[in-house]
Amino acid sequence: MKKRIVSITVLALAAAGLLTYVILYYLESTTSISSKEMSQADFLKDKHALLYFSTTIDTTPGKSYAVFLNKNGNVSARKMLPLELGTTAIHDSQAVMSDKDHIYLAGENAKTITRPPQHTGYDGGAGFIKDTNSFYTIYNSGYSKDMKNYRSEVYWGIGSKLNQDVIPYFIAANGTFHDNIYTAQTPDDSSSSETRKFVFHKVVLKEDMEIHPVMEVTLGKNASPLSPLLIDDQFIYFIINGPKGEHVYQLVKINLQTKDAETIDIKRYQKDPQTVYKAIPYSNNSTYMDSNNIYFADGLGKVMIINKSTGKKQREFQLNPNLVKLGIKKIFFKNQFLYLFAMNYGGDGQIEKYDLQNGQVTDTIKVKGIGKIISANSHVHLYDFKMIK
To answer: Over the chain, what is the mean pLDDT?
Structure first.
């Protein structure tokens, strides 16, 4: 009997010790961010990455989280209202995030802006304009009350003089070049058509918003953008599938002077539905361009290096298969490096840093405690991932 009591006591002490360890682990690695902390000028000083999670528009009640990581992989989070497809922007010591009713400027000159409700954002729908030293956000606002006009509401001058206007169409793809936002519109978006027209505009955000037509091009039937618009002095580039089937990915290269469009096959997948679905990129961040090459990461973890001049794929490398198979993933490119974040609901996460020149992993960060926030019952999706440092 005495032995049994001793054994139970030992087990109880061991369980208590384990529980204490788990509590201390989460207290160390997961903290909640207050409005006061976000308003500190040096808020981003110890932050290395930002993740934005949100529920979808049809989830009630909804919520979102801006999750910040420090250099040790410990996380701190700000809980907010939801915004499906919400995106963030980082510049120097400032970060911009949105939820249904607010725009948050964190760090230097912090402020919270209350605006009319928005339910959905755009991939790549937030950024920084150097000329005005301020941020902008674009929302997929849907049709007007009379259902006659589509609305993409724009807020800019965030951090200085706030302005608001409406882009009068749905944005199928977007990108930036020299402080201007380029958009692609597909007004004849119909599966019955043998072609698909793409209409490009340049949006200039200064004291007023100006929308300038750039060109119209016709691509093949069912052409669907899989990347942002990448722009330089001569061309607009983006990735599509559709004209040759969902399993064939093509680079579109449009000459800004002649308005001629060229499509070049870059990848052909097996035609089965499962492979086609898995190959879809994780997000709008999955494409990057430097002076010579375009880098494109598909949903299978293949990173293709495409020569800008010829449009031909030169080579490719594979991201870590153990991370690629996880349920939550996002890509981010910065300064000739690719960053892959991955996790499962309820588990810890990991960031791997890849050198684009050789495909080698140069750094790894274990993200601790994030599964306590992003649990199996959280019902949130990862919509944005940015490296700060």
So the answer is: 92
